[in-house]
Amino acid sequence: MVHIRDNFKESPSQTAGPYVHIGCTPNFTGIKDLYNSDLGSLMKFGPIKGEEITLKGTIFDGNGESLKDAMIEIWQADSAGLYNSPKEIRGQADPNFSGWGRCAVNLKTGLYNFETVKPGRVPNAEGILQAPHITVWIVARGINVGLHTRVYFSDEVKDNSSDPILTRIVESERTQTLLALKERKGLYKFDIHLQGSQETIFFDI
Amino acid sequence: MKVQSKIDSYLKRDRAWHPKALSPSYKSSIYRSPQSKLLSFPATQSEETGPVFGHDLIGKLDNNLIHNSAKQGQSAIGPRIIVFGRLIDEYKRPIPNSLIEIWQANSGGRYRHMNETYLAALDPNFSGCGRTLTDENGNYEFSTIMPGPYPWPNGPNDWRPAHIHFSIFGDAFTQRLITQMYFEGDPLIQKCPIVSTLKSTRAVERLTGFLDMTKTVPMDSLAYKFDIVIRGNQQIFFENKPEGS
After folding, report:
1. Contact B177 A146 (CB under 8 A)
2. Any chain A CB within 8 A of the CB of B220?
3. Which domains does chain B carry?
4. What does each of the 205 residues of chain A score in pLDDT, given as a tens digit?
5. Whose CB among A76, B85, B109, B190 lies 3.0–4.6 Å from B150's, allowing a Cys bridge?
6. Residue of A nearest to B116 (CA)
7. ipTM beyond cut 0.90
């Protein structure tokens, strides 16, 4: 284990608090004189390759109440499994797709919504192909360290059954907490439960 | 020809150093803290890449909160300060061209937000929102006003110390971090239930901006230095065998 002196350890996290919108989605909170649009509100900049999908859902607390002050970010590969990142060396990602989205949940309903594309498969470090997935990061009042998880797709049964992470889960009944449910073609629902019997699996990565 | 390859490998997040998810003195954490153990696995490209942003994103006044929401010829109310520092990783490598977003209350401790109910006045010339990219050496700088402390519904009489929220990207999604900067010498720091989610005084110090007279602008602004560290990337380089051998 590498030992890092306290001076150079990662800066400790603190909650984003209830007013995260001011800094991250100012237009959403009515501050419209600064930026043309909120960063991450659009993931598609033109015609894109692959199946365009909507990913939507709600975040629930331990009382079953929906969070109405949370912010979600997602990061994903394009439909060919390539990341729009300078570190991507396997090929050129779709230039019209950013791969990164940010959404403040609706202040009244708690719903979040991303207009994105179904990601392709990405190999892990050993070269094993993972099932299509979207990386998720959640912050809100009451969340002291941002929560990482992944969205997989309920209709990718075959790929899911050999995914190196899904098959790693010991409490297999919890695997379904990582599956977005296909409601109809192009529409997936992924609810997140912070606590309780349906608690989503969160990652330490 | 020798080809050099690189493997990213990020140091694990030290969960004992960060606040625990459940910190009952901070009441909002009680029902919003996952109870199960986090799932660990070797990170993949999905965590080791992340969005990057260009300098063309950043407007001229984006890092100047004194003026970015002020009417022509006016400026935000409050003590003028510069908040600056360096973004590095745990191996002390500077993180260049990386987005930093900030938000804060005005000098009266009031946020410009529809859910805000504190009775302190809004400042029509201040929104409390800013952003910048670090330069090639990982340095960043904001001009703003000193935020005020404010009361909040937690215990019967809890007050937040003056603070600025920071959102940090680094260059991998696994480095994504939100934190807060407090101000050196503020007596409210040690009374705050959110600060006290941190279990060591060293951790609190690391979130403290320190007065730095060398960076002050005489007759204009005080300056506070706040260095930020994100998860270290071990970056293992290795040379591939020359082709044909």
Report:
1. yes
2. no
3. 3-18+56-236 (2.60.130.10)
4. 455 667 799 999 999 999 999 999 999 999 999 999 999 999 999 999 999 999 999 999 999 999 999 999 999 999 999 999 999 999 999 999 999 999 999 999 999 999 999 999 999 999 999 999 999 999 999 999 999 999 999 999 999 999 999 999 988 899 999 999 999 999 999 999 999 999 999 999 8
5. B109
6. A19
7. yes
